[in-house]
Amino acid sequence: MNSKPSAMFTMILVALFLLIPPLIVFLHSTGNPITNNQIEQDILAYLEERGYSESDITSYKQIRNADDSLNTHRTRLKVVFEDEPDHGYVYVKMESGDVQQLCTVRRLNSGNVSGNESDPIHLDDHCYNPERGEASG
């Protein structure tokens, strides 16, 4: 009986050692696509519960936050509403499963806007403030 591994077995092991590290890096930086899709669907369902329809939303895009020290998933959804096309609202799914809007609204053609500045139309009264780790309002 031959105790040497076959050439095919060796090639499979080498391929696995070459493919697994880039796959781990990819999933760490982009997140699990199944989880990301579920978060997106949960946030869109939350917006629907709040009375928004598809026609109220101009666009939405998944964004990834590098800081995972918050009690939120790293995948977030930036939503642009039809009646306020120059502001992007960011929604997060908390580790508890709740969906909340971040208190900081992103002005698409410049910097961030706080809730007091230029009064964004769609800013929730009980938005999530990551600096304090709690909902405001």
List the helices and strands and how they pair.
Layout: H1 7-30, H2 33-49, E1 57-64, E2 72-81, E3 84-94, E4 99-101, E5 105-107, E6 112-113, E7 128-129, E8 134-135
Antiparallel strand pairs: 1-2, 2-3, 3-4, 3-5, 5-6, 7-8
Biased composition (Basic and acidic residues): 119-137
InterPro entries: DUF3139
Region (Disordered): 114-137
Can you tell me about this structure?
The chain is of the alpha+beta class. About 30% of the residues lie in helices and about 30% in strands. The protein has two helices and eight strands, in the order ααββββββββ. Strands 1, 2, 3, 4, 5 and 6 form a six-stranded antiparallel beta sheet that branches. A two-stranded antiparallel sheet has the order 7-8. The longest helix has 24 residues, at about 5-30. It starts with 6 loop residues before the first helix and ends with a strand. The mean pLDDT is about 80.
The low-confidence runs, each spanning 5 or more residues with pLDDT under 50, are none
- DSSP, total strands: 8
Give the integer mean of the pLDDT values: 82
The radius of gyration over CA amounts to 21 Å
Helix content: 25-40%
Provide a count of the helices.
Answer: 2
Quaternary state of this entry equals single chain
Cα separation of the termini: 75 Å
Pfam family, one: DUF3139
Biased composition (Basic and acidic residues): 119-137
Region (Disordered): 114-137
InterPro entries: DUF3139 (IPR021486)
